C-alpha cells in the first residue's frame, strides 16, 4: 500500500480554520462551579432535580448519511458509579452492606448530571463484593427504576463493574428487558470473583472467565463485556499488569460478540486537578489521556486489529466523587464521551457498541466524526468492512468529516482541532504469540493541519486517496488540540489542555 499525503488526487482545499458561531453558553441558570458542587455526598433528590438540563454539547448531534434510518451520534458513558459502590462488614454473617463508602451519588443524580452534560445514554456500574449480587437485585435496581422514571430522556442501562475472574474490572452491560435484574443476579452470583462469602479461590481463574463468557454468549439476550482501565496496573510501557494480551485474545475467542473491547480513555481524568495522575495510572501514565494499549501507534490495539479482530475502544468517566469534592473525577459527560451511532433505543445503542459504530473524544473536541472508505460503488463506515475486488483499480478514497463544538465545553473553553491523523495497518491474520502487542505495519500515513480542512456547512472535510491497496488492512483516525506528533506520556498538566479524539476502525478486505 502506498500512501499519498498531499498528491494532486488528494482533493482538499485550503481554507482558514474557523469555528462555527458559538451557541448558547453552557448550562442555563447555574454557573459551571455551582453545577459542579451539586450532588455531593448524601445529595437529596430535591437538590438533584433542581439542576438545569440544557447540555453543553447537546446530543444527539448530526446524522451520518450512510447509516441506518433515524441513527445519529449519541453521546454516552458505560462506566459510572453510584452510592451502591459501598463497603461490606464481613465480621457479620451474612456480610452487611453500607452505601456510599467509595462512590457517593444517588443513581438519579448521575443521570441528571449526565443529561446536563449532553449524554443520552448511561450505565450504572457499581463495584461488587461478598453477596453484592443480592444488593444489586434488592436495593440498587429499584433505585434505577425510579431514576428511569425521573429522567426518561436518558437511556439508563443496568449492569455492574464486573469483578472479572483473574483480571481487572469490566463493564457488564445487560440488555434492556423485563428480566434484566434477574439476569444480572444470575451472572454476578455465578461468576463474579468477589461475590462468594466466604471467598472462593476457584472463582478467580482464567478458566472461570472463559466459562463465564461461554455461558453469556448462549443467553437469549447477550450482554456486553468491555475491559476497564486495562493497563492501570502496568508497571511500564508494555509491561502488563492484571490484564494481558493473551487474556484479551482468549476471552474474545470464547465470545466474540460479547467481549468486544476496552476503554481507550479511562475515567478519573480529573486526577491532575486534585494533585493526582490522569486515570489513576500511578505506575505508568496515560498518553494524552488514553491508555497505552490504545495510544501507541503499532501497539496492542493495532496488534489486535491486525488479526482482523473487531475490537473497539470507548471513553468513560468512572465517576465516583467529583474533583471539586475531593475526588479525581468529572461528572458523566463533563469531559469524556463515547458516541454511538444509533437510534434513541436501548437495543440499537447496545448494537452500536457491539458492532463498533463508535468514536470517542475528550473535552468536547468534536461532536461528530464520520469516516467513509469508498472503492467504486462500495462504501464502509466505522465498524464495517469494505471489499476491494477490482484489480484494475485498487484505490480507496477516505473521507473524514468532523464537527467542532459550537459554543464552549464544561471548562468554558472553545476547543479547536489542531491536527487530524489517518492511521493504516495491515491485517496479517492470527498471531502465534498470544501475548503479541505490536503491529509493525501500522503507521500514520497522513497528517492534516488546520489549513488542510475544507469547511462544508458546520463540518470540516478531509479527503485522502490510498493508492494501490493490495493487502487487507484497517483504517482509523485520531485528532488533537495539541501540536504533539504522538500523544506524550502524561504528567500533571490540566486535562483540558490535552484533548484527543479517536475513531474506531474501518476494515478493508482485498479479495
List keywords for this structure.
single chain; 511 residues; 15-stranded mixed sheet; five-stranded antiparallel sheet; 22 strands; globular; disordered N terminus
Low-confidence stretches: 1-59, 61-67
SS-derived structural category: alpha+beta
The helix content is 10-25%
Provide the number of structural domains.
1
At the fourth CATH level, what is the homologous superfamily?
Answer: Metal-dependent hydrolases
Give the overall pLDDT as a whole number.
Answer: 89
Organism: Kribbella sancticallisti
Biased composition (Basic and acidic residues): 1-17
Protein name: Phosphoesterase
InterPro entries: Pol/histidinol_Pase-like (IPR016195), TAT_signal (IPR006311)
Descriptive overview:
- With 511 residues, the protein is an alpha+beta fold.
- The protein has a single domain, classed as Metal-dependent hydrolases (TIM Barrel), CATH 3.20.20.
- It is 19% helix and 25% strand.
- It has ten helices and 22 strands.
- Strand 7 (224-227), helix 7 and strand 8 form a beta-alpha-beta unit.
- Helix 6 packs parallel to helix 7 (245-254).
- The longest helix has 19 residues, at 132-150.
- It is globular.
- The two termini are 15 Å apart.
- The model is unreliable at 1-59 and 61-67 (pLDDT under 50).
Provide the fold topology:
Blueprint lengths: L31 H6 L7 H5 L22 E9 L6 E3 L6 E3 L8 H10 L4 E4 L7 H19 L4 E8 L7 E5 L5 H12 L14 H12 L6 E4 L17 H10 L4 E7 L26 H4 L4 H7 L5 E4 L20 E7 L3 H10 L2 E5 L3 E10 L2 E4 L3 E4 L7 E9 L14 E8 L16 E7 L4 E3 L2 E8 L6 E8 L19 E4 L2 E5 L1
Parallel strand pairs: 1-4, 4-5, 7-8, 8-9, 14-22
Antiparallel strand pairs: 1-10, 2-3, 5-6, 6-7, 10-11, 11-21, 12-13, 12-15, 15-19, 16-17, 16-20, 18-19, 20-21, 20-22
Helix pairs in contact: 3-4, 4-5, 6-7
